[in-house]
# Entry
Amino acid sequence: MKLLLLSNGRPGLLRSDDRVVDVSGAVPGVGQAAMQAIIENFDALRGDLARLEANGNAVPLSSVSLQAPLPSPHSIFCMGGNYSEFGHRAAAPMWGFHKSPEAVIGPGGTVVLPPDDANIFHHEPELVLVFSRGGKDIKAADAFDHVFGYTGGIDVSARIYAGAPGGGGGPPRDSLPLSPAKSFNTFAPIGPWIVTRDEIADPQDVHVRLSVDGQLRGDFRTSDMAHSIAESIEFITSLEAVSAGDILYTGTNHQGLGAMQDGETIDLDVDGVGHLVVSVSDPQKRRWNKGVDEDTARDMREGTGPPGSKVRPF
# Structure
């Protein structure tokens, strides 16, 4: 199933014919509470949801607007440096960080770049998983028992200073700190909906693409992960407990990153999930070169770490 939230917060389902069914009659609450209720009670609700999917009143997807499928998750976990960069990097020790849940925006939202003196603002396309239930010290062999489904996400990253988790530098080994450079308001686009786990045959081989104003930049498969999804869940939960409805950004391949700048439209396409489209606003009207940030791509291939990119605005 593809589960979504309408702009008024009512829960819905996307059918295979691209028509949306409002399922609020079967699900209590609106917004985060409604999606949380679906996740926590999915086995009991599945029959009613399936009947509504087949027989409920449906309207074209093009006629509705959506909000983030989880507008206020309790926690956003993120894996750092978790790709081999098309085989150029060996697996390094795992590390991770938090993004602020207050940074979430959904389909059609706008990423607003803050006035802070960043070297560059990067778009990091990622497969994002949604936890079905809580747990601590989950073993890799049991990891997918705790996965409810998947959505798409863009880990918006301000490259401000070296040494900060997610900002570029020494990865933490024994904690999951909040990354300020990745937690500005609007820096956690997710969506357009949640696809239940059973609809993704192999989450470890999903095609992820990101384009900016129609120009393809990120283009990779999750098979390029240096540490698998199951290993990532084991790592994250060795440090902190997760709860139902929490989300995990599983990392990105940095070879297609580029600057985000005022007036652009960004389209994330995750096979089996869907398209997440957001726009960019920069009140400072800063400008960087268009296209792939080759300095960052090279630094990541050479293993010099998540970068505080050398690129400066002009």
